[in-house]
Structure formats: C-alpha cells, structure tokens
User: Fold this.
Amino acid sequence: MVEKVRAGAGRLPPASRNRRKMNDSHPRKLIIAIDGPAGAGKSTIASRLARKLGYVNLESGAMYRALALKAIEHDLSFEDEAELVKLAQHSQIRLEPSLGGNRVQLDGRDVTLRVREDDVSQAASRVSVHPQVREWMVARQREMGLEGGIVMEGRDIGTKVFPDADVKIFLDADPVIREQRRIVQYHVRGVSAESMATELRERDRRDRTRANSPLEPAPDAIVLDSTSLSEEEVLERVEALVQEKLKPSAPNA
Ligand code: DC
Assistant:
C-alpha cells in the first residue's frame, strides 16, 4: 500500500480544478484520465503509469463494485435508485493503491477479492446506470483527485469526473481480444471462460448504452486501440502524451 484514499460523505467540489500552479522546477501534478471498456488494459496501464510518475492510481470502478457488493449483502434491488443512494451515503469506501492494483475497503472490511467476482461485476454495472448513484460517485472521485498527481481509470473520467483532465486516454480493443485477455488474466477455462465472456459482453452493452454517462470517448480524448499493441507499446504511447504535457512550454503546464 502506498497511500490511502477515502470515499465518504463530503461536499461536492467543482469539476474545474483550482489547483495551485507549481513553480518551474516542480512540474505541476497532472490529472490523467483513462477510460474504456473492460478488458482493454486500463488497470495495467494506469497502474504502471502511476508507478512511473510517482502518482496515485485510482480505479473508479472499484467504488461501484463496493456499493454493488453492499447492495447484494443488504438484499437491495439494483433498480431502487433512492435506496442505493442512501446506502452509498452510509458507506465508507476506501481505495488503497498498491502494486497489484487498488485494495478495496468497504466499511472497514477488505473486500478486494470479493468485488472482482462475477455477481459483483454485473451488479456494479447495474447500479451504475442510476444518475443519483453516479452523482454521489463523481463527487467522491473529484474529491480524491482534486490535488492532481493521479491516474484515474473508469468509464466517465474524461467526460464527467474530470472534463478538464490534463491527459485523456480512451483505451479500446477488439471485443474478442478483450474477452481473451480477461480469460487469461483470471486463469479460467471451459464453461467459466464462456460465462466470463458473456458477462463481459453484457456489461459492455449496458455500460455503452445507458442513458446517463454512457461509456464513450470524450471529444478531446486520444483514442488508443490496443488490439494489436503490446502492453509496452501502449504504455510508451501514453507516456509520450504525458511527457508532452509536462514540458514547460505545454499548454497549461
Ligand atoms: O472498471 P470496472 O470493470 O471495475 O467497473 C465495474 C462497473 O462499474 C462497470 O461495468 C461500469 C461501472 N463503472 C462506471 O459506470 N463508471 C466508472 N467510472 C467506472 C465503472
């Protein structure tokens, strides 16, 4: 664990940042948004990039997953927006960036592994369609990233959470490749592999077609298709974009 970040009750800061400009010898700490569908490689790239820059990597999806898990445990309907928001307001969700990705604490309990299970993945996608749930999440995510020095990954970071992020990447890949990567990542085979692929497709469809903050690139995002790129190649391209922003002459640098 390198740093703890809490997502609890608090006020809603504005989307536009009011961060202090660093002097020339201390480059300003950027906000880097990495959005895209599941299996495109966001988490790996975000975590490696954050490590290289000495930034904090925040997996916004883990927050939706934590809320979804709590809804499952409370036997709440995923359609009940008002109850889901109430549940969120009475929850403490902590993301703890670590070498292996974010550890997730829900009300003081480590739920890192549990929130990655299939039922929670589907539930996270379902609770995330509700505008008021998203509003609560976005407010917490803005609080976490306001000071900069973060790589935040998700679905709406460049469009809604930080519309003025310094670097916006939309990482995509062919759906079949994404399914295969997930299957390899989770070491699953046979029927489990099939159901993982089905789950991914279903989630994709829901995340892309929901009315509120659907998964789509921000108009000013750089779209990177990782279908035929290695992890190293994707990282190199993303790093080049970041270095461009860190140059003293770069706009807003
Ligand atoms: O990134 P992930 O697979 O852990 O995300 C789980 C679900 O949470 C995803 O299917 C949709 C939702 N999500 C979202 O709506 N907005 C985000 N910024 C991140 C995740």
Notes: Residues 8-24 have pLDDT under 50 and may be disordered.
